[in-house]
Amino acid sequence: MSRLVVVSNRLPAALKLEDGQWKVRQGGGGLVTALAPVLRNRGGVWIGWSGAAESGVDVDGLLSDFSAEAGYDLCTVSLTRSEVNDYYFGFSNEIIWPLFHDLQSRCRFHPRYWRAYLDVNFKFAETVARRSTSEDYIWIHDYHLMHQAFFLKSMGVKRRTGFFLHIPFPTPDIFMKLPWRWKVIQALTEYDLLGFQTVQDRRNFARCLQRLMPEAKVRGRGAVVTVNLGNRSFRLGAFPISIDFNQFSSMAKRKDVIGRTFELKEAVRHRKIILGVDRLDYTKGIPERIRSVQTMFKRYPDLRGKVNFVQVAVPSREEVDEYRELRQEIEQLVGRVNGEYSLPGWVPVHYLYRNLPHDELVAYYSAADIALVTPLRDGMNLVAKEYCACNNTADGVLILSEFAGAAAQLQRNAYLVNPYDVEGVAKALHRAFYWSREERRASMAKLRDQVRRNNIFWWVDSFLLAGIAKTLGDFPEIETVHFERS
Q1: Structural domain boundaries in the chain
Q2: How would you class 469 by CB atoms within 10 Å of its CB: exposed for 0-12, middle for 13-18, buried for 19 or more?
Q3: Is residue 447 a contact partner of residue 399, using CB atoms and an 8 Å limit?
Q4: For residues 289 and 375, what is the distance between their CA atoms, to the nearest angstrom?
Q5: Are the C-beta atoms of 255 and 353 separated by less than 8 Å?
Q6: Residue 485 has what pLDDT?
Q7: Is 364 in contact with 277 (CB distance < 8 Å)?
Q8: Which of 171, 256, 414, 466 could anchor a disulfide with 400, C-beta 3.0 to 4.6 Å?
Q9: C-alpha atoms less than 13 angstroms from C-alpha of 170 in its C-beta half-sphere
Q10: Is there a contact between 349 and 334 (Cβ–Cβ < 8 Å)?
Q11: Mean pLDDT along residues 253-272
C-alpha cells in the first residue's frame, strides 16, 4: 500500500527538557502548521529530528502516544550535539538561510559546516531507505535536506521523490557565492519533482541550473515545467503553500475566542489595532517595522492616541548571539517609541516576546484592524493568510511586503509596501487607518476568497498531481487511538 513519507529537519512533535524531565510538545513553525492537518490520520510516516541531542533518551517511547493519536508514525533521526551545531546552526542557518534570503553578508562559509551537512543528510537518507518501501512517495521538505534523493540513489535505493523548498530561491548572482553551488544544484536535479513557493523562485533555480549546467533544457509553460538533462528529465513547479482556512475561520467564531477578541479591543479602549506577528528572526524586518511605526507617529500626529501597534515576537534560536542581539535591539526600539510618544492612558507599542496559544493568536488576528506583515524576504509568510482567514467580519486591512512570497498571490487586494521604506510604510498605515468600511470589506472579501480557494489541501493536491498523478484522497484516512491527557 502506497504511503506518504514526509521528511523534514524537525518532527511535528518536539522534546523539551522541563524540570529535569523530557516532555513531548507540539512542534511549531510554518511547515508543521501546514503539513500536520494534511498527514493526520493517513497512516503515513514523518521522519525527522526530535530536537533532543542527548544520549540515553527513549525518544520512540516518548513519541509513541503522539504517533498513535496523530494517525501516522513518527520516526526519529538521532543527532549528536556537534552535528546539531555544524549541520543545523552552521550550514543550514549560517549559510543557506541568510544566502537564500538575500542577506549574504551574514553568511559564514566554514568547510566543516558543509561536511557535517553531508553527514547528516546521509544519516537521514539511511533512515528513509529503512523506513519506506518502493511503493511509498517520499516528500522531502526544505533547505536542511537537499541531498536526500542524491544519497538514496547513491545507495541504490529506488524511490519516487519530491522536494519542496519553503524559503526563497536566490538569483544566480547571489547563489553563485555558495562555495558548494555545483554540488547543491547537482543534488537537487536528482529529485523527480522540485517545488518552489513562487514562479519567480522556480525561474531563479532554472537560471542557476543553466548557469552551472548549460546542457539543461527547460520545456513547457505555466506553473509546472520539465527539465531535460542528459538522458533523464525531472519537473519544476510553483506551488504556493497555504493554510487550513476553515480551521482558522471556525476557531475565530468560537464563543471563547470571540470573548477574548472583545477583551483585547476593550483593553486598548477600542482604538484601532495594528498587528505584527513573527518568529524572532532578522529576515522578518521587525526593527524596520517599529521604525515605520515611529515615523507614522512623527509624520501623522493625528494618529497619536488613536491606534496601538501590537508586535508578537515568538522566541527563536535564543542560544545564538545574533538573535539575542536582535531581541535587545527590538526592545530598545520599543522603549524609544513609547518614551517619545506615550500619553496618559495610552502606550503606543505593545511588545509580546512569547509563544501564544493557538486560540489566543486567533483572537489577536480577529481583533486587529490592520495586519502589518513586512518581512525583508520570505518564502511565503503564512501570517498574512492566517490573518485573512480569521477576519470573519471582512473589515481588516492587510499591509504586505512586496518581498514576501504571499505578495505574488495577494497583491491585487493587499496594500504592498517596501519594508525598507519606513516613510512609505508609515504612509500606508495612515491611509489604511482612514479607509472606508466599504473599501476594507471589498479588499478583504477578495483576500479571504483567494485563501479559501487556494488552501493547504489545494497545495498538497497540486504537488501530488504533478509528482505522482495522485491527490490526497488517494491516501485514505484510518482510525486513530485517542488518549486522555492528564
Answers
A1: 4-241+456-474, 245-453
A2: exposed
A3: no
A4: 9
A5: no
A6: 40
A7: yes
A8: 414
A9: 20
A10: yes
A11: 97
pTM, to two decimals = 0.94
What is the 3-state composition of the chain as percent helix, strand, coil, each rounded to the nearest 5? Answer: 50, 20, 35
- Cell numbers at 422, concatenated: 519606513
pLDDT tens-digit series, residues 73-120: 899 999 999 999 999 999 999 999 999 999 999 999 999 999 999 999
Q: What average pLDDT is seen over the chain?
A: 93
Q: For domain 4-241+456-474, is the CATH number 3.40.50.2000?
A: yes
Q: Are 311 and 276 in contact (CB under 8 A)?
A: yes
Cα angle 359, 462, 126 (rounded to 5 degrees) comes to: 85
Q: Is domain 245-453 in CATH 3.40.50.2000, yes or no?
A: yes
Query: Alpha helix (H) ranges present in 213-312?
Result: 245-252, 255-267, 286-299
Structure letter (DSSP) for residue 357: P
> Of the candidates 179, 374, 207, 376, which has an alpha carbon nearest to the alpha carbon of residue 276?
374
Return the C-alpha cell found at 351: 511588545
Catalytic residues: 166, 378
In tens, the pLDDT along 313-335 reads: 999 888 888 999 999 999 999 99
The predicted-structure confidence for 160-190, as pLDDT tens digits, reads as follows 999 999 999 999 999 999 999 999 999 999 9
Among residues 45, 38, 69, which one has the least CA distance to residue 472? Answer: 38
Look-up of cell digits 547537482: 186
Residue 225, Cβ density class (10 Å: 0-12 exposed, 13-18 middle, ≥19 buried): middle
Whether 4-241+456-474 and 245-453 share one fold: the answer is yes
Ranges of H-type helices in 73-221: 81-83, 97-100, 111-131, 148-154, 172-175, 181-188, 199-212
How far apart CA 310 and CA 52 sit, in angstroms, is: 33
Contacts of 410 (CB under 8 A, 6+ apart): 384, 388, 398, 400, 447, 450
Q: Which residues of 55-79 are buried (b: 16+ CB within 10 A; e: fewer)?
A: eebebeebbeebbeebbbbbbbbeb
